[in-house]
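note to self: dont lose this again. the chain is below, predicted strucutre after it. 193 aa total, dont forget to put it in the shared folder this time
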Amino acid sequence: MRKQLVVMVKEPHPGRVKTRLGKGIGMVRAAWWFRHQTCALLRRLRDPRWQVTLAVAPDVEGLTSRIWPEDLPRVAQGSGDLGDRMGRLFRTLPPGPVVIIGADIPGVTRAHIARAFAALGDHDAVFGPAPDGGYWLIGLKRVRAVPKSLFNQVRWSSEFALADTTASIPDLTHAIIDTLDDVDTVEDLRRLQ
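---
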C-alpha cells in the first residue's frame, strides 16, 4: 500500500487554465506561469517515500501530453466539478493513503507533503487550508470505503469550501496542517513575490 501524491494538472493552454490570473496578466502569460510553476513543483515534490501521480485534464490530451514528465503515471480526471473529480480519484486509485493537491501552490515542499502523510497515521483525513477558506491539500487514509457523502454540497471557490468538505465527512477524524497560498489572481501572485 504505497503512499500516493496526486497532483491535479490541466494542459496549459491560454484561456483554458488560470483564467482569473489571466484577466490580470494576460492569458498567454498565465498559461506560461502555470506550466513553469507546475514543472518546478513536480521536480520539488519527487520523493522515494511516495509515488507522484498526475491527474490530467482534458483526459485524452492530458494522457498523451508531452508537456509533463513522461515517467510519472497519469490518470484522467474525468468529468464533473472538482468534488466529482477528486472523489473519483479517491475511490479508484490503488489501496493506500492518497494526498491530492493542485499545481498552483508555489510554497509547497516535500516537508508539507510528509506532514500530511504523517497526519494520516492518526487520522482518517487531512487538510491543508488556504487563507481564503478553501484548501490546497486533502488526503484520505482509505482503510475503509470512501464515504459517499464526501464533497456533497461543497461550495467550491468560496470561503466555505473547507468547512463544507469537513461537514461532508462527519464520521471521519481529520487533521489540519500548514496554511499555504494558491495563486488564482494577479493579487495572489504579487503577494507571493
